[in-house]
Design brief:
303 residues; alpha/beta; 18% strand; binds NADP nicotinamide-adenine-dinucleotide phosphate
């Protein structure tokens, strides 16, 4: 009997890597759609993430039982807009339907909303809606902010705390986050891949922090003596843009800050993850923020 195929977008990325590890460990045959070169010795079959060639995309998905989709873009840059990311995901869903994929596990975000002024959140909501209407068996997974070794946001907070005497907290710092561990997210996705009912699930960690509490937690864990100062969001963004230019990256965008300050990275439903952010930060304290994690290096520079 031929073994069922499972396709993951971004198996060499952040969330996709942990998802893939679990599928491979349980003996599943895994194929990835990616723009990244495969690491040596990977057991994963590799095909291009070729949104502009729908037949090739469908061909890569033919025979797959489940598609785990992590594809999205963090911020718009050049031709890579949120509109393009929506179109690309539509092409992926259409290819999955054409290929007869039995189930789609789609990673979205908490508080996705078609009426949101933030295109990250509205674009995700449009895709959720289309997947719900598509007739394909699906699970929509909506993480808050994801933490783990390859994370960018928390790592770069630690990086700033290690290097600068001051950390600028935008606004009151009272807005909240409910971080979820990347491995808990991966477990949730794989579990949902095995079901056949249509579900929408928030992926949420067990602890909620205000932004200021989170920064203080990281600061104290890594032994930084940086002082926290409050400034309007516009000032924090301007400083962020200076740091971004210095490291050749985009540190944070206006929309990301707004999503954070509007409390969009918390959920009203009970936690699905069990891993403590507090404990994880302490366990990672010697390594966290030692080097800067660059979004542009990850996704826009030649490998
Ligand atoms: N990270 C978080 O804190 C967080 C929070 C809430 C929701 N999410 C959602 O979780 C999913 C996975 O996020 P992640 O952080 O784990 O992402 P990731 O691994 O960095 O990227 C996921 C996938 O998107 C592709 N991709 C990312 N940026 C791209 C770009 N600029 N151009 C072309 N392709 C790009 C990657 O392609 P390659 O395989 O070619 O690298 C990969 O297939 C996303 O849908 C995201 O919206 C993440």
């Amino acid at each position: 009997m031929t073994e069922a195929l499972h396709v993951v977008t971004g198996a060499f990325g952040y969330t996709g890597r942990y998802l893939t590890e679990r599928l491979v460990a349980s003996g599943r045959r895994v194929r990835t759609l990616t723009t990244k070169p495969p690491p040596p010795g990977t057991p994963v079959e590799v095909r291009p993430l070729s949104f502009d060639r729908p037949e090739d995309l469908a061909d890569s998905l033919r025979g797959a039982e489940t598609l785990y989709n992590t594809y999205w873009v963090r911020f718009p840059r050049g031709q890579v807009t949120y509109g393009r990311a929506v179109e690309n995901t539509r092409a992926l869903f259409a290819a999955a339907r054409a290929a007869g994929v039995a189930r789609i596990v789609h990673v979205s975000i908490t508080n996705a909303d078609e009426r949101s002024p933030l295109p990250y959140f509205s674009g995700k909501a449009v895709l959720e809606h289309e997947l719900r209407e598509s007739g394909t068996s699906h699970a929509i997974v909506r993480p808050t902010v994801v933490f783990g070794r390859e994370d960018i946001l928390i790592n770069n907070i630690a990086w700033i705390l290690r290097r600068l005497p001051l950390f600028v907290v935008p606004g009151s710092g009272e807005y909240r986050l409910q971080p979820v561990y990347v491995e808990d997210l991966a477990d949730l996705c794989v579990g949902l891949g095995e079901r056949r009912d249509d579900v929408v699930v928030d992926a949420v960690g067990p602890e909620t922090f205000t932004f200021e509490e989170l920064v203080l937690l990281v600061r104290d864990a890594i032994g930084s003596r940086a002082r926290l100062v409050h400034a309007p969001a516009a000032v924090a963004l301007a400083l962020g843009s200076v740091i971004g230019r210095a490291v050749g990256d985009v540190l944070v965008t206006r929309d990301e800050l707004r999503g954070l300050m509007d409390d969009l990275l918390v959920s009203a439903v009970p936690p699905t993850g069990t891993t403590s952010f507090r404990a994880w930060v302490h366990a990672q304290a010697t390594e966290l923020g030692r080097s800067y994690a660059s979004e542009l290096a990850r996704h826009y520079r030649p490998n």
